[in-house]
Structures are given as C-alpha cells and as structure tokens.
C-alpha cells in the first residue's frame, strides 16, 4: 500500500524506461524508492499503458491519490496526439489521457515530460524563486524543453527540435544524450554540440537561466563547465526525479 506521507503518484515515460514512484508533495521527493520498467521495444499505446497499470498495482496506489503521467510529446487535454518523436508512431491520432485513464481504471492527468520536470524544478529545485525567463531542458533520448516565465509555465514548447543549421535540421538528433551514447562522444566533444544548441537558444530567447536535467545531469560536472554561453546554466536539482515529481505535483493541482 502506498505509504501515507505520499500524496500523489508520478509516472515518467521515457524512450528507455518507464519510471514511477509515490511522491511527497511537501518535500518534493519520492516517498518510496521508484520502480523502473524498461520501455517495450515496440512502444505502442497498449504496451506502454499496460506498464503504467502495472506500476499503479505494484505501489497499490489508493483511488484518492492524484496520478500524473509525464509523457514525451506535446499534450493538449481533449485533443488527439499529432506529433511523436521517440515512441511508436501509432500514438499519433490517440487521445493519450483517455488511453491511460482506461488502462488504469481511473482518471489520470498527462503532461509533457519536460514541462513536468520544469515545474518540479520551479517548485522544489534549481529554478525555485527565479524571476524572469527560465528554460528548463531535459537531455535524454530526445531533448525536452519547458519555458517558465516568472513562475508560470508556457506549456508544450518543442525546442528540442529547432533547426541548428542547414546540416542539422533537428537539434535533438545532433545534441541529445542518446546521440552522445550512440556515437560514443566524449563529454567535451558533446559539450561543443551543446554549446551550439544552447547558444542558439540563448540568441533567440535571452533567458535568465538554463536548467539542465535528464539522467545525464548526474554527470553535469563533466560537460556543463564546457558549454560556452553567457547565460547561467545549472544542473537540475531533482536530477532524473524531476519528471515523476513534477507529474505528481501537476496532477495534485488539477484535482
Ligand atoms: C519530444 C518532447 C519531449 C522530449 C523529451 C522530444 O523528442 O518531442 O515532447 O519533451 O523529447 O522527452
């Protein structure tokens, strides 16, 4: 049974793993250790939703607990998905909230994964109390972005897909952590690619702060100092937990 200090349940759906945990919303941290299940090789709506159901069953999440799901695509409640970069293309045309709610047998709240992470950093982490424009980014299989202006999220930005130059028409295919792994790039070499990415973002948005999240943020000392831009750039405080914590937090605000 989900323990009592937990007030909401968060799930983070990624290209490689589906992670979930009960979340203590006062502290902004996991109330119990998370459970990670590998994303199925063919990541159809049915296959992914079945794993989310399995997560809820595992933690015996009570019916009264808000459930938030961080999902790697732009999410507009009540509308069908029209873009999917890193999960199976059969998600396109699907009402994501409906699929998860049906599989879980209860209403759930779905939010873009980078927006969830950004909200968590704004509420509990590296962007807490920050005025002006924060761009929170997640470096994983793809690149996710969240724009937060004076504490307010501008949802569903897809700035991981900006055109870098005539050779690189999709930034995440050049600079994501997934690409770093595939191409076995060293951290300094990767930081050069990240300089190109964050440099362009800086030029177009003039943010006050960049926050860098995703699993690789654990290694931030190996690449952040080599990203050569003017804007302050800091690692996410919640590291890879931000998606789960942010999804749980977001769901709690919707209940
Ligand atoms: C997706 C975004 C997502 C990001 C991180 C991108 O490929 O288009 O919606 O936030 O990956 O998962």
Automatic annotation (TrEMBL):
<dbReference type="Pfam" id="PF00480">
    <property type="entry name" value="ROK"/>
</dbReference>
<comment type="similarity">
    <text>Belongs to the ROK (NagC/XylR) family.</text>
</comment>
<dbReference type="InterPro" id="IPR043129">
    <property type="entry name" value="ATPase_NBD"/>
</dbReference>
<protein>
    <submittedName>
        <fullName>Transcriptional regulator</fullName>
        <ecNumber>2.7.1.63</ecNumber>
    </submittedName>
</protein>
<keyword id="KW-0808">Transferase</keyword>
<dbReference type="GO" id="GO:0047330">
    <property type="term" value="F:polyphosphate-glucose phosphotransferase activity"/>
</dbReference>
<dbReference type="InterPro" id="IPR000600">
    <property type="entry name" value="ROK"/>
</dbReference>
């Amino acid at each position: 049974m989900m323990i009592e200090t937990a007030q909401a349940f968060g799930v983070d759906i990624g290209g490689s793993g589906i992670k979930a945990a009960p979340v203590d919303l006062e502290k902004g941290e996991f109330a119990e250790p998370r459970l990670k299940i590998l994303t199925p090789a063919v990541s159809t709506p049915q296959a992914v939703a079945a794993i989310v159901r399995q997560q809820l069953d595992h933690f015996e999440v009570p019916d009264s607990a808000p459930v938030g799901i961080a999902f790697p695509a732009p999410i507009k409640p009540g509308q069908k998905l029209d873009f999917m970069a890193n999960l199976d293309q059969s998600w396109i045309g699907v009402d994501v909230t409906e699929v998860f709610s049906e599989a879980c047998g209860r209403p759930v709240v779905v939010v873009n994964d980078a927006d969830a992470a950004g909200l968590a950093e704004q509420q509990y982490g590296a962007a807490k109390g920050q005025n002006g424009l924060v761009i929170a980014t997640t470096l994983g299989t793809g690149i996710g972005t969240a724009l937060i202006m004076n504490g307010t999220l501008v949802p569903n930005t897809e700035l991981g897909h900006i055109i870098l130059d005539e050779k690189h028409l999709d930034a995440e295919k050049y600079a994501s952590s997934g690409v770093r792994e595939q191409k076995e790039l060293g951290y300094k070499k990767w930081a050069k690619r990240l300089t190109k990415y964050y440099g362009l973002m800086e030029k177009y948005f003039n943010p006050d702060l960049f926050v860098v999240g995703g699993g690789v943020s654990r290694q931030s000392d190996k690449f952040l100092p080599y990203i050569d831009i003017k804007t302050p750039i800091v690692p996410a405080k919640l590291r890879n937990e931000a998606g789960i914590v942010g999804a749980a937090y977001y769901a709690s605000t919707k209940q």
